[in-house]
Amino acid sequence: MSTVALIKRAFPEGVTEADYLPLLTVLYPHMSDRALAMVVGHFVGQDYPLVLNDIYGVGGGFKPASPDAVAAVQARLVAAGLEEWIQEE
Predict the structure, then answer these.
(1) What's the pLDDT score for residue 1?
(2) Which end of the chain lies in a sparser environment, N or C, as judged by fewer CB atoms within 10 Å?
(3) Helix pair 48-60, 33-44: axis angle to 10 deg
(4) In the chain, which stretches have pLDDT less than 50?
(5) What is the DSSP string of the chain?
């Protein structure tokens, strides 16, 4: 399963601004920074360098997402097949 397919299933109406940092937070441990920036940037319509900077913020703890928002996004991704996606990666 591709990352694009996973995100499309979890967010069929698109990734909202409220879900953006939580999505980066959930996927960060499973992807390279560059791959994550390319994929998520595609979904949110942000330029690669801006998303990459946000990823560095998430990874470094400078841009924390609320735990409740992270849990909600993780639940959506799990329902869309996150565990299977992790196994394939």
Answers:
(1) 56
(2) C
(3) 120
(4) none
(5) --HHHHHHHH-TT---HHHHHHHHHHHGGGS-HHHHHHHHHHHHT--HHHHHHHHHHHHHTSSPPPHHHHHHHHHHHHHTTHHHHHHH-
